[in-house]
Design goal:
alpha+beta, 11-stranded mixed beta sheet, 19 helices, globular
Length: about 800
């Protein structure tokens, strides 16, 4: 065995030396350029066939499932290879073969197994959420129990249950008119386009008098004409916008891209979060002048908009499929750069964690590390605002001024003031509701008074009769956040036969709400004990109840292992420019950016791949000067960073991964932490002294209820390990015996031990595939082509489908 191993090592050394010497392969190699061979979708794939030097390219025969396809490939004499897009892949396994045509060349052969998935998906997931209501050319309102449909922005109807709609192309040009509207120029019907749109419909063969010219990053000056491809993929509706020359006599193909595209993709991820069961058109605006004018391709898909899809694995799957489509139709991608605020930052961060390599750099603004740990703060806040409105707290507050009461709430919540938790409750406090509900909202920010609205709504956006109800419709569609991702989590059917409830990770067992407020003297021991006695939790249907919330233990393992809790290790593998405005009375808190940094620090001991730009004027840049200083500056800085990275550490494949050291080494001098102080409304004076930035009241970070409860800044512990109650942990507090007994009753199993890892907390093993069902398993090594001699010897199909974890 050792001698055989030595022989293989020696052969590998010879092959490596040959490759370094510039020699071609000694046998055929078939290399997919648009995706792994086992994750292909849509029926086509860009392939490169590397041919042995002793075999003339004209003597190579290429076959797909026995069908001759050589004519679809172009010879490249310099690399002695053939490149082409193979089409007509069947769903499931396909065999692509390369072989010599005549005698005298050893009759060499190679084959590659290509596993193709439908254009409508899934690829990484084993199943898709149903029902799923296809969009229509014009929106159709709900009628009785018939769901509504959204306007697709396309002129024809879906042709199948996966909502595939025929692809359409439109041309627009950029006007030279000053003060034009940057609103989306082609809103879904029946909306009317903006009166003075910056992008106007273009007619082939005309030269409008207001047609702008633009110069790309490659120095090419061209008429500013953009082609927008709109189609469907993975049941979402996408846009692909790029500079286009309609006068070119040569069709744009993967092998002959038009030169005004710089090969770079700016992918825009949408904000908010939601769980609808309807096909939407993307909420993103493809008309991104900063990117398009420089030759970038601008891309979106409604399933990478968090408002329309909070299944983070589905988000990553959709991005992967979109990149493959771009390569197959437009040509190879130099790099893919993400951007997006709030839920758009979640989509970027979790993609980088769930499937490292899909994104080469990210620009999260209004940052959240991920949705699942953000949900901890949301649910804590729902519990707190309801507790504050209850009789126990109200009684304790007798005799205090409203300012004193709100100071106590602020100390418990950890935010700038009491309004932060109210904002979470009102905006997303019902995200986990599986059925129809009426919202209970904070109606008065000063007093925290609540009001329950007279309404019925559900997160699926389906007619009420179709939705789950524990009594009248137990088999109806469940609409909670986890339920949209049942293909990832699995359900409780093993515990309760017939149940469709997805496993969930929410947990507040052992949380000592207000702990640091107690230790600081901001609340009394009676207030602390009463709070933790009465705070309660949620039941399986997300109704508040007296008992604390307890996670489904298998879900915890999946959350960490799949990277759904964003992994600092994976976030360290790509450049990050985090731009952060002020929204401390809303939901976008400054500490969130530092939480992401803390995760990277824990993994690497530094955060050299992440830079942070802060400003105190508002959530997003609001003026041209602010846009130039932050948004445009981020794009241009990231472009330099990724160009440097492509030069110093080129990727082996489209979706391969760099190391943090490579990323940091490529960082340009302009990629540094800075802020614009609140008074600098024109963003003219960047400040690089972080102490000065932190001293600005609108740039200071606050905390969350769990950090006040003793939890870490990284906020990545879903369920804490417990330890016994111990008076030593409260050095400044003397609990009377009755209070101590009540505290023991409130925490019968102990309180959180934040010095320990969370229950089920572990390193991410991503990327995972869920094709075989919930829970997921590690993706095997990518399939490679296997040689076969003319004598029928087969080296074997060595696809290793074992599950490997990084423990």
């Amino acid at each position: 065995m050792n001698s055989m191993k030595s022989s293989f090592l020696a052969l590998g050394a010879v092959l490596m030396v040959a490759a370094q010497a510039g020699e071609g392969p000694s046998r055929f190699e078939i290399v997919p350029l648009s995706n792994r061979a086992d994750l292909v979708s849509g029926g086509d794939a860009l392939l490169e066939v590397r041919v042995p030097k002793n075999v003339p390219l004209s003597q190579v025969s290429l076959r797909l499932n026995g069908r001759e396809v050589t004519g679809a490939f172009r010879a490249d004499a310099a690399s002695h290879a053939l490149r082409g897009v193979v089409t007509g892949l069947v769903d499931g396994d396909n065999e692509f073969a390369a072989e010599t045509r005549g005698r005298g060349h050893g009759e060499q052969q190679a084959r590659l197994r290509i596993t193709n998935h439908p254009n409508g998906g899934p690829v990484l997931l084993g199943s898709q959420t149903t029902p799923w209501i296809c969009a229509t050319p014009t929106a159709v309102p709900a009628s009785g129990n018939t769901p509504a449909s959204n306007a697709s922005g396309l002129t024809t109807f879906a042709v199948d249950a996966q909502c595939n709609i025929a692809t359409e192309y439109k041309l627009f040009y950029r006007t030279t008119t000053a003060g034009c509207s940057t609103a989306l120029p082609d809103p879904s019907p029946p909306a009317v386009p903006p009166a003075n749109a910056c992008f106007k419909p273009y007619t082939v063969g005309t030269t409008p008098p207001d047609l702008a010219m633009t110069t790309t990053t490659h120095g090419l000056t061209v008429p500013y004409i953009v082609r927008v491809e709109r189609g469907t993929l993975n049941r979402g509706i996408y846009d692909i916008a790029v500079l286009f020359d309609p006068a070119s006599a040569t069709p744009w193909t993967a092998l002959s891209p038009q030169p005004q595209w710089n090969g770079k993709v700016v992918y825009s991820f949408g904000a908010s979060t939601g769980q609808p069961r309807l096909q939407f058109r993307s909420e993103q605006n493809w008309a991104d002048d900063a990117a398009l004018s420089r030759g970038f391709m601008v891309v979106d898909n409604s399933l990478t908009d968090s408002l329309f899809n909070s299944n983070r694995v589905l988000n990553a799957e959709t991005l992967m499929m979109m990149k493959e489509h771009i390569v197959d139709a437009y040509g190879e991608i130099r790099y893919t750069l993400g951007n997006g605020c709030s839920g758009g930052s979640i989509q970027q961060n979790t993609t980088a964690s769930i499937f490292p390599g899909l994104l080469d750099g990210i620009q999260p603004s209004c940052d959240f590390s991920d949705s699942i740990t953000t949900g901890l703060e949301v649910t804590d806040c729902v519990l707190l605002v309801n507790f504050y409105a209850g009789p126990e707290w109200t009684s304790l507050m007798t005799g205090l001024t409203q300012a004193q009461i709100n100071a106590k709430k602020t100390a418990i919540n950890g935010h700038l003031d009491q309004v932060g938790c109210q904002s979470w409750n009102n905006a997303f406090g019902f995200n986990n509701k599986p059925g129809n509900y009426a919202r209970t909202l904070v109606a008065n920010q000063t007093t925290g008074a609540l009001i329950t609205l007279v309404e019925s709504r559900n997160n699926c956006l389906l007619p009420a009769a179709l939705v789950y109800d524990p009594v009248s419709n137990p088999n109806g569609t469940r609409c909670g956040d986890a339920d949209l991702s049942a293909a990832v989590w699995g359900t409780t059917a093993g515990i309760a036969p017939g149940s469709t409830r997805a496993l969930q990770t929410g947990d507040n067992v052992g949380i000592q709400y207000g702990l640091n407020a107690l230790l600081a003297g901001a609340i009394t021991s009676e207030e602390f004990v009463t709070l933790n006695e009465r705070i309660g939790g949620f039941d399986a249907d997300f109704n508040r109840n007296a008992a604390r919330t307890s996670a489904d233990l298998p879900a915890l393992d999946i959350a960490y292992r799949a990277g759904i809790v964003s992994s600092g290790k994976n976030l360290g593998k790509l450049p990050i420019i985090d731009s952060r405005g002020w929204d401390e009375q809303g939901i976008h808190y400054i500490w969130r950016s530092f939480a992401e940094r803390a995760r990277i620090d824990a993994a690497y001991g530094d955060h050299g791949n992440q830079v942070m730009w802060r400003y105190g004027t508002g959530l997003l840049p609001a003026t041209p000067a602010q846009f130039a200083a932050v948004t445009l500056n981020s794009l241009l800085t990231m472009d330099v960073w990724l160009d440097n990275l492509n030069t110093s550490a080129p990727k082996e494949t489209l979706n391969s991964v760099r190391t943090q050291a490579q990323v940091v080494a490529a960082k340009p001098a302009s990629a540094v932490d800075f802020c614009f102080l609140t008074g600098d409304v024109n963003f003219a004076n960047p400040v690089t002294d972080m102490a000065v930035c932190d001293a600005d009241p609108r740039l200071a970070k606050h905390a969350s209820p769990r950090q006040v409860a003793g939890g870490p800044l990284a906020e990545n512990i879903l369920k804490c390990q417990l330890k016994p109650l111990n008076p030593v942990d409260y050095p400044s507090v003397l609990f009377p015996s009755d209070q101590w007994a009540r505290l023991q009753a409130a925490f019968p199993d102990g309180v959180c031990d934040w010095s320990e890892k969370g229950v089920g907390q572990r390193r991410a093993a991503s990327p995972l595939t869920f094709a075989d069902g919930p829970g997921g398993k590690r993706l095997p090594p990518p399939p490679v082509s296997h040689p076969r001699s003319g004598h029928g010897h087969d080296d074997g199909d060595r696809d290793d489908h074992h599950d490997r974890d990084d423990d």
